[in-house]
Write a structure and sequence with these properties.
Strand content: 15-25%
Oligomer: single chain
Number of helices: 15
Low-confidence stretches: none
Distance between the termini: 71 Å
């Protein structure tokens, strides 16, 4: 069907959808080109730029963001880096010239996008007020693209005074297009995509559940609590602290997605290393350290990354290898040799700074102690350390 036979409203929606696919920098360049054109100067008497409510300008903001959320007398205002975002163009009077009509069409697209973006930002400012005040991701509330679209629909049609109209329904697909590439600074100066300010139920739940379990782990280490909470207790805490009303099964699925073990595997009997394990202090895994610090007697040892962690099926840990030897110093020195046969361990030792700790054991108990450590690690993280190719 040719464009001329389509309803005008549908043609306008298609043009807007295509225009919204453009990145923000493209819109800024277009505005500059339009205002610098001969036809714009010829039609200047018909054009009036009107700034949006709660909008201000700050050309000193960094490239890569379109603006910043700022507190002013207890209210959020939007400071824009480029004039393209903080205003819309009104056309006053009439013109029959074809060039003027094309300019009018372009100004309408620019203004519609700018007002849609401004309304998106004002809606986000209203619904994510706690986050913008604190900067804490845990204060981000559930606020989907669909919810933002409904807020914009109501806001845009309340007390209309300007001439451009947004589409009849601002749906999630329109929000998604308009949000593409749009980054803002928070009041604290952190650059975020505005999609970050529209978290789903899943994202909010996982973030807050992880915070609860991190807090729980710290309290277990300090001895402030005796046992971890099961999924039902976690569900109740989510309701009490944040008002998140979900089923116990949803909590369980979110916990598993995060790679976090069930309560019975987070208590003191299921930790790595098991409580009471008498590891030595941590030493840098270097030839000099081995020569000066590590025993020549029998023992079990653990090699780990000095910085960072390795991903396992049920969590992350810096540990990459467990082993035993009748001569710890010699065995660890062998690992540092370039021709060591353990290819996986060699890759870690070559590419990262590693540390080692060990515990002394009698020759007869070496395998028993190593097996107990490996079993404890596997129970917690769902696999043996990356460098261990076989069970001890």
């Amino acid at each position: 069907m040719p464009p001329s036979s389509l309803p005008a409203r549908l043609v306008g929606a298609i043009r807007l959808a295509r225009y919204l696919r453009r990145l923000p920098a493209w819109s800024e360049t277009l505005v500059e080109e339009l205002e610098d054109s001969d036809v714009f100067r010829q039609c200047a008497a018909h054009i009036r730029a009107v700034r949006f409510p709660e909008a201000e300008m700050d050309a000193g903001l960094p490239v890569g963001v379109i603006g910043q959320f700022r507190w002013r007398e207890g209210r959020i205002r939007i400071a824009y880096r480029h004039p393209a975002w903080g205003q819309e163009y009104l056309w006053e009077g009439e013109s029959d010239q074809s060039e003027a009509k094309r300019l009018l069409l372009q100004l309408r697209l620019v203004s519609t996008r700018s007002r849609l973006t401004h309304l998106m930002l004002m809606g986000l400012a209203q619904h994510q007020r706690m986050f913008l005040d604190s900067g804490d991701p845990l204060d981000l509330e559930l606020f989907t693209q669909a919810a933002l679209g409904r807020w914009i629909d109501a806001e845009d049609r309340q007390g209309r005074r300007l001439v451009w109209h947004l589409p009849a329904t601002v749906d999630p697909s329109l929000i998604s297009r308009a949000a593409r590439g749009v980054n803002m600074l928070t009041p604290q100066g952190q650059a975020v995509s505005i999609r970050y300010l529209m978290p789903s139920v899943r994202v909010v739940l996982q973030r807050r559940l992880k915070a609860l379990l991190d807090e729980e782990a710290a309290n277990l280490r300090r001895g402030l609590i005796e046992q971890p909470a099961d999924d039902e207790a976690l569900r109740v805490r989510l309701v009490e602290r944040w008002g998140i009303k979900i089923a116990r099964r949803t909590v369980s699925l979110a916990r598993q997605t995060l790679g976090l073990p069930a309560s019975y595997r987070r208590d003191g009997r299921h930790t790595y290393p098991p409580r009471g394990t008498a590891f030595s202090q941590v030493y840098s895994l270097t030839a000099a350290t081995l020569r000066d610090q590590v025993l020549t007697g029998p023992g079990v040892y653990e090699i780990a990354l000095a910085v960072g962690e390795v991903s396992y099926p049920e969590g992350a840990s810096p540990v990459i290898y467990l082993g035993h030897s009748r001569n710890l110093r010699k065995r660890l020195a062998d690992h540092l040799r370039p021709d060591t046969k353990n290819i996986i361990l060699r890759a870690y030792l070559t590419g990262s700074r590693c540390v080692v700790r060990y515990l002394s054991a009698s020759t007869d108990d070496l395998r028993v102690v190593e097996r107990a450590l490996a079993q404890s690690f596997e129970e917690i993280y769902g696999a043996l350390p990356k460098g261990n190719r076989l069970h001890p």
